[in-house]
Amino acid sequence: MTTSSSVPGAVISASEGLAALVDVLAEDRTVIGPTCRDGAIVLAEISTADELPHGCGVELEAGRYRLVSRPDAMIFAHSAGPQSWKTYLHPQRERLWTVDRDARGRLAFQAEDVAPPAYAFLGVRPCDLRAIAVQDRVLGGGPHTATAYRRRRERAFVVAVECTDPGATCFCTSMGSGPGVGREDGDAAAYDLALTEVLDDEGHRFWVRAGSPAGERVLGRLPHRPGDAPSRVAAREAVAAAAQHMERAMPPVDLHALMAGSLDAARWDDVAARCLTCGNCTMVCPTCFCTTTEDVTDLTGDHAERWQRWDSCFDLDFSHLHGGPVRASARSRYRQWLTHKLGTWHDQFGESGCVGCGRCIVWCPVGIDITEEAAALHAESADRQAAAEETP
Amino acid sequence: MRPQPVPYDGGARPTLAVFKLASCDGCQLTLLDCEDQLLAVAGRLDISHFLEASSAVRPGPYDLALVEGSVTTPADAERVREIRSAARFLVTIGACATAGGIQALRNFADVEEFRATVYARPDYIATLTTSTPVSAHVPVDFELRGCPIDRGQLLEVITAFLAGRKPDVPNHSVCFACKRRGTVCVTVAHGTPCLGPVTHAGCGAICPAYGRGCYGCFGPSASVNLPALIPLLRRDGMSDDDVRRALRTYNAASFAEVEGAPS
């Protein structure tokens, strides 16, 4: 975005400007954004800005989520909703191929080839921006690319909204993924537009930056004014204040090494006693990507389909080999999840699988807290080390 | 036992029999409820014994037997052995056949007392002191859970039988189904008591989709931690008695076998 002003970016109003943004995006895209439904701020298709959660906030704690009315008209001052963008980019179930048998018994395979919808994601928080980048490396990178994922991803228009009101379960600052969009993580092209919501005496508005030519084109069509210093300062301060308000943090240690050194920790028994093994943490996690496949046949026997669906390392069948599951105990399954998320993910993909969004903390019915578990493992490791040093 | 795939050569169709023990008939009616697929089912299987559909019955042996209901009488205990001996592949359908059903509440009470209270001539009643699943009496090839069973899962079991493959019937919790269909967790977001985290998936998570907690109609999942769930139910307003009653419905006997179940 080039403006005559010395301040980068532009400013749009929270009323006409945001309404126009949704309208412009909806012209040729399926717009997905936050909206209030069933006592939560969920992600769903929206057609106007009126459907966004104006004045809605959330109170978050481990195992607890409550929708509340805010004293102000803020639209994006909430976090850790029940879904993440993988709902759209990496859907819970999709067909991979079909096969038909003709009268002579010949099989004809047909790979699934349906043009994916062109999405516009409105309100992607910085932690989720990082999560999308993580899934890009897992599903879109490497020698075996998930074609359908890549096509959905390539067509998606991303409107990031910086976080100004983190929940009590958020810890993005300690994972280096928020609350601002930043540029230091190398995900420079991660968004098309980045917005920061500002509500002060000067009005309710968004400071907007374009991160791509497509973003610049969209911004050019919105009623906007050049970026001004007060708006930029207010936006920067709101994001800085959010970082200060972050209530949780991962222990500031090498988590990769901690996980590798904690495979026999007693803490796994402690957490296993509390864990329902219900799989909710993996389903709400914006980076958990595991799937299984199911082969569907019909009653004629001449038609079969292969479907891919979300799976979870908490499902006993996930590690079922001949004779039974490899990870039969809750201890082994929780350990698998955490050590992969924080540890072996680095070995596989060169980064952490955790972005600090806090969803696994909120949506765990019994409120198991990943930061607390990591801290307990660290404390146990430190104790072990101290004891070893005392023993000659 | 794994069924052999049935060749699609237009030859003899495998025979299907549907039997009922102590039950309400709801699960076998699920087969008639298949509507759009019913003709296809009848085209692939020779329906030889299905009293809810036709009074014309043919003798066994049957290639596939669907058995509904639990064993509650000495006569049923004998009959289920006959059914087994006449069935190549035996699938039990529903909470009664797989867990003893709601009538397994007798397992926790004095049946003599019931008999004396309910019947004018208790000496006419020949009944067992327990209601037990079919698998407690004879080997079962596959158990399909639910009160009632899910139509889609029944078709999957039949289709898998015809194809000679394992049915795709996951053993995980209802939470998986809620998350997949995008239902907001009723416990976390509303404080509603829900048995979903310990209940076998299969219904498609219907109740939470309508804002209600799961009732556990499909019985315990393959991986249950009741001591972790019960404090949540108590926190969300259930008394100890409420918790006991919630776990003592259609799958009372199987939940009672789970570690940490209230006595």
From TrEMBL, chain B:
Q: Report the InterPro entries cross-referenced here.
A: Hydrogenase_assoc-protein, NADH_UbQ_OxRdtase-like_20kDa, NiFe_Hase_small_N_sf
Gene3D superfamilies the record matches:
NADH:ubiquinone oxidoreductase-like, 20kDa subunit (3.40.50.700)
Q: Which Pfam families match?
A: Oxidored_q6 (PF01058)
What's in the keyword line of the UniProt record?
Oxidoreductase
Where the record annotates domain NADH:ubiquinone oxidoreductase-like 20kDa subunit, the positions are 24-160
Q: Which domain of life is it from?
A: Bacteria
Return the protein name.
Oxidoreductase
User: Which species does the entry assign this protein to?
Assistant: Streptomyces varsoviensis
